[in-house]
Amino acid sequence: MIRNYLAIAWRTLKRQPGYAALNILGLTVGIASALFILLYLAEETRFDTHHEKADRIVRVSAEITEPDDHFYWSTTQVPLAPTLKAEFPEVEEYVRFIPNGRTRLQRGEQYFFDEKVFVTDSTVFNVFSFDLLLGEAATALKEPNSIALCKSLADRIFGGANPIGEFLKHPPGGSTK
Questions:
Q1: Residue range 47-76, pLDDT digits in tens
Q2: Is-above-0.70 flag for pTM?
Q3: What distance in Å separates the CA atoms of residue 162 and residue 115, rounded to the nearest whole number?
Q4: Is residue 168 within 8 Å of residue 157, measured between CB atoms?
Q5: Long-range contact pairs involving 160-169 (C-beta distance under 8 Å, separation at least 24)
Q6: Residue 152 pLDDT exceeds 70
Q7: Taking a C-beta distance cutoff of 8 angstroms, is the pair 168, 105 a contact?
């Protein structure tokens, strides 16, 4: 039976090549469009879903219109977050992430550089539920000049030792872009 379908398809292809090409092209575009839409929806619906409050986390972005361009920017002005919380009761909490660029940290006489350093509010663990290997989320970043490190950076700086209570310097000129 399948052999008959293939034979009919082959004959149609030979007799009407333009019509067959148009049908194949339409089918290809339709399937590709459906796959792109599915991939887009899958990415959008699983973004940050591992956080406990994922259904209440919102990212604020700016829509900028210039005379010759129109674009969205993921950066807003720093005072926007406290203003939104003060003026809108729906805003429970806010967290701002400010990229610090290439950052130099010093422990003793050794210098360590990292590209992905962010300055953030102490409320980051109130909004996002990250699994901490050491320390408590309730007390993390509550002290002035405190820092939270990822495992790879902590291992690189402290060599697997417990980094809680240790000191790192962010020397002048420590942030280089």
A1: 778 888 888 888 888 888 889 988 888 888
A2: no
A3: 23
A4: yes
A5: 162/134, 163/134, 164/134, 164/135, 166/107, 167/107, 168/105, 168/106, 168/107, 169/105, 169/106, 169/107
A6: yes
A7: yes
Q: Where are the domains of the chain?
A: 2-46, 77-176
Copy the structure tokens of residue 166: 């240790």
Residue 104 buriedness (CB in 10 A; 0-12 / 13-18 / 19+) = middle
How many whole angstroms separate alpha carbon 127 and alpha carbon 95?
7
Ranges assigned E (strand) in 30-136:
62-66, 69-73, 97-99, 102-107, 110-114, 118-120
Q: How far is CA 124 from the centre of its chain?
A: 15
C-alpha dist (Å) from residue 174 to 103, 122, 156, 168, 171? 6, 22, 18, 12, 5
Residue 12 and residue 20 in contact, taking contact as beta carbons nearer than 8 Å? yes
Task: Give the type of residue at 18.
Answer: G
Contact 144, 75 (CB under 8 A): no
Amino acid at 109: E
Cβ atoms of 74 and 59 closer than 8 Å: yes
CA atoms within 13 A on the CB side of 121: 13
